[in-house]
Amino acid sequence: MRFAADSSVLIRLYLDEAEAEPISRFLAEDAKVISVSDLARVEVLNVLLRDPGLGAAAKFGDDLAEGVRLRLESVDWPDAFQQAESLARRFARTLRPGGHDLVLVAAAVAMGATWFLSFDRNSRQRPLAGAAGLRVWPPLDKDEKGFVKRATQQAAG
Amino acid sequence: MKTLTMRDLSRKTASVLDALERGEAFELHRNGKAVGYLTHTAPPPERKPDWKAHFDWLKRQPKGRGKSLLAEFEDDRRRLRARERAMGNLP
């Protein structure tokens, strides 16, 4: 199993203990390793570097270099963009995902992820990941499951 | 480190094993490319991620500054969503 994380999850590992509690429990179970794409790496760094005195950016860099908790995966970006186009062709009409959602989920697929971790419920990245065949954590809610069902049914038909 | 082809390995298996016992190491090649190593010593055990240590570190961090950066991240995402909506995505 490979766990790809959106920056909405990665950021919380470095900034907010209160919001990190559910992540902490999920990751500690089976000592999960998080796969990080360069896209997510830059997104997270872009926020953590705004307060270099906090030390979070340095800790994030150390964790990536160590490769034990976080593993920087090399993504075949031409392949990822082909995946993104394929997702757009299948789900643009039903899910209306944003371009950012398409690239994030496509990168997860291209790096062989089986899980997609994201707290971003304001976008369509979570249902899109579900429609792309990834397991999503935190689990999809009822509305999101409905989006996935309709999207996959229409894509199949 | 000596290199070893697949042909060498199959032809000289006994002498390669003798050399390994003496502590020598080999880089194993197939079709001109390195595919692995033969060594006398076992690889180091894979380290499991220690998330408890990580979250202990997080507990020691100043609370307010982290929350403020998190709020900035959420603002960034809201701006992104607003742009996507303006383009007709994300109903």
**Overall morphology of chain A:** globular
Distance between the termini of chain B: 61 Å
State the low-pLDDT regions of chain A, or none: none
Question: Helix-strand pattern of chain A, N to C?
Answer: EHHEHHEHHEHEH
What percent of residues of chain A are in strands?
5-15%
Task: Count all strands of chain B and give the number.
Answer: 3
* Greatest interface and its participating residue counts: A-B, 37 and 32 residues
For the biggest β-sheet of chain A, the strand order reads 3-2-1-4-5
Keywords:
heterodimer, A: alpha/beta, globular, B: alpha+beta, three-stranded mixed sheet, 16% strand
Topology of this structure?
The complex is a heterodimer of chains A (157) and B (91).
Chain A: E1 3-5, H1 7-15, H2 17-28, E2 34-36, H3 38-48, H4 56-66, E3 70-72, H5 77-95, H6 99-110, E4 115-117, H7 125-131, E5 135-137, H8 142-156
Parallel strand pairs in A: 1-2, 1-4, 2-3, 4-5
Chain B: E1 2-5, H1 6-11, H2 13-21, E2 26-30, E3 33-38, H3 51-59, H4 63-86
Describe the structure.
The complex is a heterodimer of chains A (157) and B (91). In chain A, strands 3-2-1-4-5 form a five-stranded parallel beta sheet. Chain A has 157 residues and is an alpha/beta fold. In chain A, helix 7 links the parallel strand 4 and strand 5. Chain A is built from eight helices and five strands. The longest helix of chain A is centred in the middle third of the chain and has 19 residues. Chain B is α+β, with helices and mostly antiparallel strands. Chain B has a three-stranded mixed beta sheet. Classes of the chains: A alpha/beta (157), B alpha+beta (91). Chains A and B meet through helix 1, helix 2 and helix 4 of A and helix 3 and helix 4 of B.
